[in-house]
C-alpha cells in the first residue's frame, strides 16, 4: 500500500470523523478532549477537540492526524550476469494525513440542532504534498428515546486538493473533494441503544492533471 511514493491516498478517507457539528449542543461551558492511539505498532492516530458555548450558539475546533513513519523506500537493482532484478532498501519516508475543522452550532429548539464546519485537508507522502478546503453542514433531531442526524460533507463543488512534489517542480495534480452524505439513527432503550448509519458517496471523484 505504501510501497509507491506516487500512490497517495484519498484525503477524504473513512478514518475521518462522521460526528457532525450539530453535536456541539452537549457542551455546557467549555469542553476539551484528546485521544491518541497506535495501530499495529506502526500507524499513529491523534485527535484533539475544543468546544466553547457562546452567547448565541456553540463554537468548536477539532484536529485529527494519522501517520506512518520510517516506511522503507526500495530501488530495483539488476543482478549481474542474469536477467533478474532484486529490490534493495534505499532510504525511508513518511506518510501523514490530517483534517482540521472549525465548527459553529445553533439550537433551533430543544430537540433540533443545526451546524456547519469549515474543513482544511492536508496530506504528505514522501516529497508529495497536498492541501485543500471545503465545508460541511449537518442537523440533529433528538428526543428522549430517538435521535436522527444528517451530515453533508464537501458541499462546495469544484474544490480540489492540489498536489505538488518538491523533487519534481512540474508535478501538479488535483483531487476532487466529492460530496458525501451520512444518515444516522439511534433508538435508546434504557441502558442500551440501537444504532444504524448509512453513508452515500458521490462516485464521480477524479484525479485531474
What structural keywords apply?
disordered N terminus, single chain, 12 strands, twelve-stranded antiparallel β-sheet, mainly beta, disordered C terminus, 209 residues
What does this structure look like?
The protein has 209 residues and is mostly beta strands. The protein contains no helices and twelve strands. The protein has strands spanning 30-39, 43-53, 58-78, 85-107, 112-125, 128-142, 146-153, 160-165, 168-176, 180-189, 192-201, 207-208. Strands 1, 2, 3, 4, 5, 6, 7, 8, 9, 10, 11 and 12 form a twelve-stranded antiparallel sheet that branches. The chain is elongated, with a radius of gyration of 21 Å. Mean pLDDT is 84; it is low at 1-20 and 205-209.
In short:
The protein is built from no helices and twelve strands. The chain has 209 residues and is mainly beta. Strands 1, 2, 3, 4, 5, 6, 7, 8, 9, 10, 11 and 12 form a twelve-stranded antiparallel β-sheet that branches.
Amino acid at each position: 500500500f505504501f510501497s509507491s511514493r506516487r500512490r497517495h491516498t484519498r484525503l477524504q478517507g473513512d478514518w475521518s470523523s462522521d460526528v457532525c457539528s450539530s453535536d456541539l449542543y452537549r457542551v455546557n461551558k467549555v469542553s476539551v478532549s484528546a485521544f491518541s492511539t497506535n495501530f499495529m505498532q506502526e500507524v499513529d492516530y491523534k485527535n484533539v477537540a475544543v468546544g466553547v458555548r457562546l452567547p448565541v450558539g456553540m463554537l468548536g475546533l477539532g484536529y485529527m492526524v494519522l501517520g506512518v513513519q520510517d516506511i522503507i523506500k526500495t530501488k530495483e537493482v539488476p543482478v549481474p550476469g542474469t536477467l533478474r532484478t532484486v529490490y534493495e532498501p534505499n532510504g525511508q519516508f513518511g506518510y501523514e494525513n490530517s483534517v482540521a475543522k472549525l465548527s459553529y452550532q445553533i439550537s433551533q429548539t430543544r430537540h433540533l440542532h443545526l451546524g456547519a464546519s469549515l474543513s482544511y485537508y492536508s496530506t504528505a507522502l514522501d516529497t508529495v504534498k497536498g492541501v485543500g478546503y471545503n465545508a460541511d453542514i449537518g442537523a440533529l433531531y433528538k428526543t428522549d428515546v430517538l435521535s436522527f442526524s444528517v451530515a453533508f460533507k464537501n458541499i462546495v463543488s469544484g474544490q480540489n486538493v492540489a498536489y505538488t512534489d518538491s523533487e519534481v517542480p512540474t508535478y501538479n495534480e488535483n483531487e476532487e473533494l466529492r460530496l458525501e452524505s451520512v444518515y444516522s439513527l439511534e433508538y435508546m432503550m434504557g441502558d442500551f441503544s440501537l444504532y444504524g448509519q448509512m453513508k452515500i458517496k458521490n462516485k464521480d471523484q477524479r484525479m485531474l492533471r
